[in-house]
Amino acid sequence: TEGIVIAIDGPSGSGKSSTSRGVAKERGLRYLDTGAMYRALTWWMLDQGVDVSDAAAVAALVDRPVLTMGTDPDAPTVAVDGRDVAVEIRGKDVTDNVSAVSAVPETRERLVRTQREIIAAARAESEGIVVEGRDITTVVAPEAPVKLFLTASAEARATRRSKEVRTTDVAGTQADLTRRDALDSSRKASPLTRTADATELDTTGLDLGQVITLVVGLADAAR
Ligand code: C5P
């Protein structure tokens, strides 16, 4: 039998990554961070000196780099042309430019194709996969039996993200999250949206363990 797909969308800082990894670990599933793929492609474009505000320039090059994603939730990896870029993709340069790259339709076509290949392989070879991003429930895996939309207040999201990136500038972090959310929600190509059949989970007052327990419960019910 084919493995299960758990699709998780939501804005930055809503707890998607920690929740997805936690659920995957608890149930022996693979884990795919699609945001890391958009970041990796953005890192490569910047490294090549591409002007990422030029959509045609981005579109012309999206197929060039080879992206390799490791889907073990205990040690997820991301490589571009064989180079480990896990640290580089979290830097300010990439964070400031990723929304521009991800708004280009050719970027999305290329990465969605790669994501579906990774999902198909995981379903064939394992118990299944938890996939997180902005368009997983709507575009990448709309047929997934478990579809979640995570939210949290802007303050809670900024506080969490600040801890993750080890900054004390919570206000600056909140401004950055708000800017990216606005870009990601307003773009023409696959904007961040919640579909009627995705379960919305507001994680503001919950700790990570509580959220993981809720999602594991939904996953077990769907199998
Ligand atoms: O999740 P993360 O913050 O790492 O994602 C970085 C960026 O990648 C987002 O701000 C968004 O522009 C883009 N993204 C996307 N679709 C996804 C995942 C991420 O457009 N499925």
UniProtKB/TrEMBL annotation:
Primary enzyme class: transferase
Enzyme Commission no: 2.7.4.25
UniProt keyword annotation of Magnesium present: no
One GO molecular-function entry: ATP binding
GO cellular-component term (any): cytoplasm
Domain Cytidylate kinase intervals: 6-217
Biased composition, class Basic and acidic residues, residue ranges: 177-187
Binding site residues for ATP: 10-18
Keywords, in A-Z order: ATP-binding, Cytoplasm, Kinase, Nucleotide-binding, Transferase
Subcellular location: Cytoplasm
Keyword ATP-binding: yes
Annotated segments matching region Disordered: 160-196
Annotated GO biological process: pyrimidine nucleotide metabolic process
Coiled coil stretches, renumbered: none
Catalytic reactions of this protein: dCMP + ATP = dCDP + ADP; CMP + ATP = CDP + ADP
Signal peptide: none
Matching InterPro entries: Cytidylate_kin, Cytidylate_kinase_dom, P-loop_NTPase
Family: Belongs to the cytidylate kinase family. Type 1 subfamily.
Record protein name field: Cytidylate kinase
Organism the protein comes from: Nocardiopsis kunsanensis
